Amino acid sequence: MRLGRVLGVNIYLNPFFLGLLALYFVAGVLDRGLVAFGVVLVHEMAHALMANRLGISSNEVELLPFGGVARAGTELQVDPLRETYTALAGPASNLAMFALGVALKNYGLWHADLGPFFLQCNLLMAFFNMLPALPLDGGRVYRSYLAARIGITPATYRVALLGQIFGVLIAVFGVLGIWWGACGLDIPVTAFFLFYAATRERSAAPYLLMQLLMRKQQELFREGVLSAKQLVVTENVPLGQLIRFFMPRCYHLMTVLDRHWQYKGTVTETRVIDTLLHRGANVPVGELIEK
Asked: Dihedral (C-alpha) 49, 50, 52, 54: value to the nearest 10 degrees?
C-alpha cells in the first residue's frame, strides 16, 4: 500500500505492518503504534537519504513489522564502504531522536505515557538493528567488513546464517515471554520476519558475487586503476570455487601451479569472469592457460 512521497522517497506500508497497527488498535494503544510507526519511518528515511547522498538511487521505503526496508540500487551491496555508511545512518537517526526526546523532556515538552515509550522505541530500534546479522544494519556493516577479507559470498552466507539463528532465538524467547506474560505476539512475529528476510539474503548471495564482478570491471574501465591481489592456485581448481575469494575494490591475478607445484602461467580476473559466463563454474582454471 502506497502511503505517499517524502523528500523524493515513496513510502509503502506492508500489509503485515497494517496488521500490527490493527493489533495496537484492538489493544487500545493505537497512539503507541503511531509512535512506533514514526520511529521506523525516520529510521528508514535516514537509510534512503544517505544512499541518495552517496550517489546510490534509493526512492522507495517499505515499512515491515520488524522495521522496514529502504530499497536502493544493487550496487550498494557490492560497495562495502557506502553500504556501511548507509547502514549506520538508521541507528544514528534513532540515537539522534533519543537525544531530542531527552532534550524535550528537560524543557518540559513531555507526555507522561508516550514520552518514555518514544525513548524506548528509539533505543530498541537502534540496538536491535545493530545486531551483526543480515538483514539488520549491524549485519550489513559486519558483511562489509568480512567481504574485504573472505569475499562477499562467504561473508553473506555467514552473516545471513546469524540472522536465521537470531530469528530462532528471538522466537523461542518470545514464545516463553508470552507464556510468562512478559511480552506480546509482536516478538515472535518479528522473529519470523527476521528469519524469513535472512533466508532471502542467503539465497541472493551468488547473485551478489556476479554483480560485484561486473561492477569491478566497470570501475577498472572508468578509473583506469585498481589495487591488485595475487592468488596462488593449483590447475585443477574449478572457477566456481576460485571466485569465492574475489574481493571488492581489488583486481585479482592468479598464479597457476601444475600438479607438481611448478609454475604454469598467470590468469587475470577478467579471463576468469569471461570463461565463467560462457562455459560455467566447473571449468578448471588450468584450462585458461594459453599453450
From this structure: 160
Helix axes 186-203, 205-223, angle to 10 degrees: 60
Residue 21 pLDDT > 60, yes or no?
A: yes
The grid cell for 109 is 515538552
- H or E element that contains 61: strand 60-64
Q: Which residues touch 132 (CB under 8 Å, ≥6 apart)?
A: 138, 139, 141, 142, 159, 162
Q: What is the pLDDT of residue 37?
A: 83
Kindly list the domain boundaries of the chain, sorted by start residue. Answer: 1-130, 132-207, 226-288
| Residue 101: pLDDT over 90 | yes
pLDDT digits (tens, 9 = 90+) for 113-159: 889 999 999 999 999 999 999 989 999 999 988 887 877 788 899 99
Residues 6+ apart with CB under 8 A from 96: none
Contact assessment for residue 96 and residue 65, using Cβ atoms and an 8 Å cutoff: no
Cα 271 from Cα 288, distance rounded (Å): 8
Question: What is the residue-averaged pLDDT of the chain?
Answer: 84
* Residue 199 burial (10 A CB sphere; 0-12, 13-18, 19+): middle
Q: How far apart are CA 207 and CA 220, in angstroms?
A: 20
The backbone torsions φ and ψ at residue 67, rounded to the nearest 5 degrees and listed phi first, read 155, -115
In CATH, the architecture of 226-288 is Roll (3.10)
